[in-house]
Amino acid sequence: MLIALQKRKENIAEYVLYLWQVEDLLRALQFSPEAIYSTLVAKTTGTDEQQKENIFNWYMQIVELLRKEGKEEKGHLEHTLHLIADMHNLHLQLLKLPLGEHYRATYSQLVPELPRLRTLIESESISDTELCFRVLYATLLYRLKGGGERVVEDTLAVVSPVIGELAMMYGKIERGEIDLFEEK
């Protein structure tokens, strides 16, 4: 919970990927309250009992959402998919507006790789932005399993800059630091 709150403030992309990890971790723990507490909460350092209770309740709320949305075995919470949809809307705006000049140049490096990435992820019906998130998450899982570093690095080299810049722009707009429609 504490990490999620920090990531939400600092980087929307890291926040989404972190929540996806939490979903999978809760599934691995079979949604067991005892396992969640002993594995994820009890060992939390620098927190008092009230904070531990809040952290435990946060995990259990995610469990409840996963169950409510029918995603006990796979899939991602609607909350994160809505955030990705918001980011995709920003992506579409940046492809058109003067403010997106640098983003368009970054994105153009990814465009030739999109068909290959769609084949890897096996999904034709998702947005380019969601595809990038799925690729980043799959790459993270691939790394955890000890997969081929060359493939991982090549993929990250084209996807990470796009999502990184999109997340940065999203954060700046959300904080009111830039106006998407402001004339230069």
Gross morphology is globular
How much helix is in the residues? over 70%
How would a crystallographer describe the biggest sheet?
A: none
Q: First CA to last CA: what distance?
A: 39 Å
Order of helices and strands: HHHHHHHHH
* Global Rg: 18 Å
Residue windows where pLDDT falls under 50 for at least 5 positions:
none
- Return the domain count: 2
Number of strands: 0
Category by helix and strand content: mainly alpha
What number is the mean pLDDT? 91
Residue fraction in strands: under 5%
Number of helices: 9
Q: What does this entry look like structurally?
A:
This protein has two domains: 2-68, no CATH class; 78-174, no CATH class. Helix content is 73%, strand content 0%. The chain is built from nine helices and no strands.
Write the layout of secondary structure elements.
Elements: H1 2-10, H2 12-28, H3 33-41, H4 49-68, H5 78-96, H6 101-110, H7 114-121, H8 128-144, H9 149-174
Helix pairs in contact: 1-2, 2-4, 3-4, 5-8, 6-9, 7-8, 8-9
Characteristic key phrases:
184 residues; mainly alpha; 73% helix
